[in-house]
Amino acid sequence: MSNQQNQDRDLEGKIALVTGGTKGIGKAIANRLARAGAKVIVTARNSPVEADSDHHFIAADLSLPADVIKVAGQINELFGGVDILVNNMGANTYPGGGFGTLTDDDWDQAFQVNLLSSVRLDRALLPKMLQQKSGVIIHISSTSGQFPIWESTMAYSSAKAALNAYSKALADETGPQGVRVLTVSPGLTKTEAMEVFLKDLAKKSGITVDEMTQTLFERVGGVPLGRMAEPEETAELVNFLVSPKASYITGANYFIDGGNFPVVK
């Protein structure tokens, strides 16, 4: 086997969990880690339409504490823990229109899904990583965490900003014990969820989806590369960060946004 082929399989023997791993960015990450040699576990609320027999699927709604306990229990029983945890679960399904449209339930759900699901799962699976003095945790955040759009992402952006702060604090705590923690913040990405989001905004604004897409590009300050990201592009970044090639990287937040972020990060 060539050196290049060995590098492509540098996750051989590793156990990886990808939450929200049946669609979009999560699915792309799960497939990429599997190609690198990892045994991949995926969670989602519903079984995938096209199940990948190479992945072990666990049905769960990780916004519910009981489901986090269920997932962690199954993983510890079947696999003895994980070496890689990618907290990809997240959603921006909350009413737009600013503070007056958001109820306490909307705020609570935004934080349950986009922050506390990761906190609870880390708490359940991190002890085994600390015991073996190795492991990598990736929190999939969003550029919205530092670029909130009041009309459409207020609750979501607030929860992602909290996730960013938590992720950095956890990295500082676990780094001396051999566990790396990183954040990846995708920008506009071509997923099913993004399509639904754009259609909903377009309908409310009385314009076409193409017009809404252009409006969104302008609202975030433009994207120099002129397009949305493909999920596979974020998956490549995550694959690098969990690999031995990134062994000296922890605590950082990586933006993958086509250059759209309007300030020096």
TrEMBL record:
Q: Which domain of life is it from?
A: Bacteria
A Pfam family annotated for this UniProt entry? adh_short_C2
Ketoreductase domain residues are 14-189
- Xref: InterPro entries: KR_dom, NAD(P)-bd_dom_sf, SDR, SDR_fam
Task: Kindly give the NCBIfam families that the UniProt entry links to this protein.
Answer: PRK06523.1 (NF005095)
User: Which family is annotated?
Assistant: Belongs to the short-chain dehydrogenases/reductases (SDR) family.
The cross-references to PANTHER family, in alphabetical order and at most eight, read: 3-OXOACYL-(ACYL-CARRIER-PROTEIN) REDUCTASE, NADPH-DEPENDENT REDUCTASE BACG
UniProt protein name: Short-chain dehydrogenase
Please tell me the species this chain comes from.
Pedobacter antarcticus 4BY
